[in-house]
Amino acid sequence: MGCWLSKQVKHTPGYEEPAVLAAETAFTVSEVEALYELFRKISYSIFKDGLIHKEEFQLALFKNSKKNNLFADRIFDLFDLKRNGVIDFGEFVRSLSVFHPNTAQDEKIAFAFRLYDLRSTGFIEREELKEMVLALLNESELCLSDDLVETIVDQTCKLVDSNSDGKIDPIEWKEFVRKNPSLLKNMTLPYLKDITMAFPSFVMSSEVDDE
Amino acid sequence: INLNAFDIISLSSGFDLSGLFEASE
To answer: What is the ipTM of this complex?
Structure first.
């Protein structure tokens, strides 16, 4: 009698078929497969459970798992669509798709708004704006006087808050970004357009044994 | 002063997702 040894393909938790993700995102099937390789590398870097934890996200971004950064935290939280503290493969691909050059600008504008709406109130409030400016100054070790920070925040609020209700709503944000498109530059990663060319090392077998 | 707070914020290294790709190559 013959005996076959079969290799069981084991995917990460929350794995979704590349064809399904490609249909919903700006990526092709082979790009989603390449992203799976990237996802596996990040999600097995510390906890080795096939899910990206915040420390693994920080390690990938900063080569330091303990480096806290307000904006990286916000991006992690927005990638974590299920709000369970980790990013699974589907969340990773869907969220990265926002940063694809072919993704509609409105989607990028909406994502950036949620990013800056630190307390998820539906508005970017003056205090949030000030908190973000202070975080950046702290990160970059730039020193601006309190008066100058207040002036910059006040001026920006005045500029964006067209109905003068003291906070920035999504319509005001959209209008402001349309006049200042450079504000969206962080929302596009040019190399996502052809991951398989830019990162040939990600292109491996689409059926990978996690063992 | 003609500084826009959002322009300042966008300078954060936290927005640079290229690290995700570089670190994993």
So the answer is: 0.89
